Amino acid sequence: MFHGSIPALVTPFKNGELDLDTLKRLIDWHVEEGSHGIVAVGTTGESPTLSHPEHELVVQTVVEHTAGRIPVIAGAGSNNTTESIRLVRHAQEVGADGVLVVTPYYNKPTQAGLIAHYTALHEACDLPIIIYNIPGRSVIDMAPATMGELAKLPRIVGVKDATGDLSRVPKQRITCGSDFIQLSGEDATALGFNAHGGRGCISVTANVAPRLCAQMQEATLAGDYAEALALTDRLMPLHEAVFLEPGVMGAKYAMSLLGLIEDEVRLPLTPVSEPVRARIRDAMRHAGLLN
Predict the structure, then answer these.
(1) Would residue 225 show up in a list of annotated catalytic residues for this protein?
(2) pLDDT of residue 32
(3) pLDDT 10s digits, 51-68
(4) Residue 112's domain is classified under what CATH number?
(5) Which domain holds residue 146?
(6) How far apart are alpha carbons 240 and 269 in whole angstroms?
(7) In the prediction, which pLDDT does 211 show?
(8) Does residue 118 carry a catalytic annotation?
């Protein structure tokens, strides 16, 4: 079910409030552009600054409006296991196809603590669970051996790997098995990730260039690496520019240039600086997204 280009969907705001009409238009656009799934209220969806009712409303809105056209993965991570259980149960109640659960941040659990956390979530719901391993943000790094233990649980089905270490893919194939779904969490290395055995990317850039990202993923999964490389060459400046400052800020600015959303984020994030705006505009021209 989970493969290819899966945008980590931004959450649109207007005058500080959720903009659900724009959210629905974005979903329709992603379906039309060929995205293979959507993540609702991941960290790129600004989950840290959404209230719990807002988080649940966005997930429910995305599930209902997508209406089964493509899979919906609901963000359900927390460094509080009880809170994460509540989020995965809500995702199940509203009909999400799976949940994405980031490794607990700040409190730095041990590897045994990670196993206990994800096991508790596994027992609390019937949805497929995708681990989100991003040590650069969470501080802790889930070891391949730990992931292998969790992969024995039937509903722990995959990982969004944002370590940036392409050797993790074969290491995790050894510990988790070849059926374990490995999705890249880093746009710039998504081609190499799939070449090592990955099946797709949960992407920030796909908020801006969904068709190109979907085509690149389809090329890799078909074994056409020449086409995938040509598409990556078009996308690489955009991958870099979007992340010069926190990715959601860059993505929202780029999307505003396409007339998709307002360039609005919530504090403590702020809109990207003018030098970064210039880099994003240049990268979008390079990709053929702007004249």
Answers:
(1) no
(2) 98
(3) 999 999 999 999 999 999
(4) 3.20.20.70
(5) 4-224
(6) 19
(7) 98
(8) no
